[in-house]
Design goal:
Layout: H1 20-38, E1 48-50, H2 55-66, H3 70-81, H4 87-90, E2 94-96, H5 99-113, H6 119-131, H7 135-150, H8 156-172, H9 186-191, H10 207-211, H11 217-237
Parallel strand pairs: 1-2
Helix pairs in contact: 1-2, 5-6, 6-8, 7-8, 7-11
Amino acid sequence: MKLKSSPCRVAELVTTNQSEPTITNWLQLIRYREKQIYGYDKVTAPCMIVSDRSLPLLIASLMVFAGESLREFMERSWRIVSGRASETDLYGLIIHSGLSHFMKDCKDNCKKYYRKEHQWFGITFFRLLAAFNRLDEVRRLFYSICIVLRAEYQSPLCRFHLERIFDENKKYFPAEHHNVEHVQDSSSAEEDTTDPDPRKYTTELTEEDALLQQASSFKELVMDLDVKAKRSLRQENV
């Protein structure tokens, strides 16, 4: 295969059921045929699985190729970013969904919870979080985000953290940044000024929603930061 050429297609699944058990069964069959062709002692595991953000595919790949659950993968990832990884952790399978798919999910979530003229504000948060490479940077930014979103009015504490967020935005994206006082043009503001209707998004719990309910150190971190932000805002109002 030439460098930078497209990968050779070796298997294809045609189904109307894209659940984790279906994909797992399909990957196990591929793995079995691979062992028959190359021998059981010569089968290797891929270093990375690239997907279009299909969580069932990513989870099935972890289980079949690495014998690892999503929770185990998240804990291994936590050890890596927190500087406590072993050599085994560093050489484990990586599941990759791509930044474009991540940002699409972020945009969809912003549509659920923000008015149209404020969606840029939520997307700014996600874009900054994706730009950071260190856990301490993410922790500091997420705390500021919690302060801003939890504040009932623009208190001094809220303004301080809002300024911090936009300073970071200017640093990482100098060519395009918003001032703290964002002016919305009248044309887009007139299009949709109603609050998002949460009923549109709570009609059904999908398999992916259920899978994402699993506990992890990452989730514990953001929940802890949110609690600290609420406590700081209460103390400011005393």
